[in-house]
Amino acid sequence: MAHDQARERAFDALHDDLVRQRGDLELTLKRSLYLGLLKLYDRLGEGVELAEAAGEPTRRLVEARDEILELLDVEGVTPIDAEGEFDRHWHSAVARVDTSSESLHGKVALVHRRGFVKGGKVLRPTDVTVYRFTPQEVS
């Protein structure tokens, strides 16, 4: 009986390891495809911003950008939430902004570029500006 349980635990451990390795292999094989789609997503976003600034229609650009997000979602690639506290695992600080509010220290102030994750692994971190508390000098 104990032998059967040990064998079942070993089988389960091997199965879990195989599933993890299969996911790692898939990510390795498709990583460049995902990053290429993310670059296209970024460029379409820039196009939307430029068109909006020029007062031009943006519907087709927005639709194309949304379709890329849908394709990525089908593959399990999802955006990283950039709200709240800065987290080195998910975010890349590209700038800091001083604040006199201690409660804002270490929080995300602005998102420059969305980050994405697949299966708990970061494909691309979110580029953010982070608040830094700077006490006001009393005069």
Describe this structure in words.
By secondary structure, the protein is an alpha+beta fold. The chain contains 2 helices and 6 strands, in the order H-H-E-E-E-E-E-E. The chain has helices spanning 2-53, 59-74, and strands at residues 77-79, 91-99, 108-113, 116-118, 121-124, 126-133. Strands 1-4-5 form a 3-stranded antiparallel sheet. A hairpin with a 2-residue loop joins strand 4 and strand 5 (121-124). The longest helix is centred in the N-terminal third of the chain and has 52 residues, at 2-53. The radius of gyration is 22 Å and the shape is flat.
Helix and strand pattern: HHEEEEEE
In whole angstroms, the N-to-C terminal distance is 79 Å
Classify the secondary structure makeup into a structural class: alpha+beta
**Beta-strand percent range:** 15-25%
Rounded to an integer in angstroms, the radius of gyration calculated over CA atoms is: 22 Å
Number of domains: 2
Shape verdict? flat
How many helical stretches? 2
What's the overall average pLDDT, rounded? 88
Quick gist of this model?
This protein has helices spanning 2-53, 59-74; strands at 77-79, 91-99, 108-113, 116-118, 121-124, 126-133. It is α+β, with helices and mostly antiparallel strands. Helix 1 runs antiparallel to helix 2 (59-74).
List the helices and strands and how they pair.
Layout: H1 2-53, H2 59-74, E1 77-79, E2 91-99, E3 108-113, E4 116-118, E5 121-124, E6 126-133
Parallel strand pairs: 2-6
Antiparallel strand pairs: 1-4, 3-6, 4-5
Helix pairs in contact: 1-2
Which key phrases capture this entry?
single chain, 139 residues, alpha+beta, Nucleotide Exchange Factor Grpe, Chain A, domain 2, three-stranded antiparallel sheet, three-stranded mixed sheet, flat
